[in-house]
Amino acid sequence: MPPRNVIDDYIMEETTMSQRQSWFEGWRLLAVLTLSLIALSLWIASMRQFEVEGVRMVIRFTARSSLLLFCLAFGAAALARLWPNAWTRWQRRNRRYLGLSFAASHAIHAVAIVVFAKMDPAGFAEATSAASYIFGGIGYAVIIAMSATSFDRAAALIGPRAWRALHLVGGYYLWFQFMVSFGKRVPAMPGYAAFLIPLLAVMALRMIAMASRSTPQTAKA
């Protein structure tokens, strides 16, 4: 029997979820998370009367919510392989929707950045650099491409090899960008080191899962 490709895995996840779905799964999960992020962002901005400081608070909040959702999606398969239980199976089934929720969070983040740029051009220029435009722009291009190909038809259109390359390389690029974005703030604000912990943990889990997957093949050889 030939091995399934990654697109078949996505379709199987969808089928399994339709058979075993709880309330908080699939598109409902995506809708609840997205609406919650929008509501929380509006509430945070309103704490400062929707002025510049409130918008900057939204930027910080969505950067952190994006980090959390990214780690949940990026580590889902590794966790399900290493520690199969009800939570990790739920996470694995819903990694597509966690990934799309991450994209929604970062879309709100982008809107807040644009609003900040319009409300306080001088402050925005001081807070950004050419590097942030370049690498941030690449990051958003990756997010858009990965989100677009999270749907079965688009994934089938580009084929399993291109799909896997895009999501693998794109995932690692976003991981690296999060490491740089949060890591560069640690010298001035040591508390930001806490945000590096889930990123390092997810990478460690992926490496361990990859090693455990290759070990049986090595033993057979």
Automatic annotation (TrEMBL):
<feature type="transmembrane region" description="Helical">
    <location>
        <begin position="189"/>
        <end position="209"/>
    </location>
</feature>
<feature type="transmembrane region" description="Helical">
    <location>
        <begin position="130"/>
        <end position="151"/>
    </location>
</feature>
<keyword id="KW-0812">Transmembrane</keyword>
<keyword id="KW-1133">Transmembrane helix</keyword>
<keyword id="KW-0472">Membrane</keyword>
<feature type="transmembrane region" description="Helical">
    <location>
        <begin position="27"/>
        <end position="46"/>
    </location>
</feature>
<protein>
    <recommendedName>
        <fullName>Ferric oxidoreductase domain-containing protein</fullName>
    </recommendedName>
</protein>
<feature type="transmembrane region" description="Helical">
    <location>
        <begin position="66"/>
        <end position="84"/>
    </location>
</feature>
<feature type="transmembrane region" description="Helical">
    <location>
        <begin position="96"/>
        <end position="118"/>
    </location>
</feature>
<feature type="transmembrane region" description="Helical">
    <location>
        <begin position="163"/>
        <end position="183"/>
    </location>
</feature>
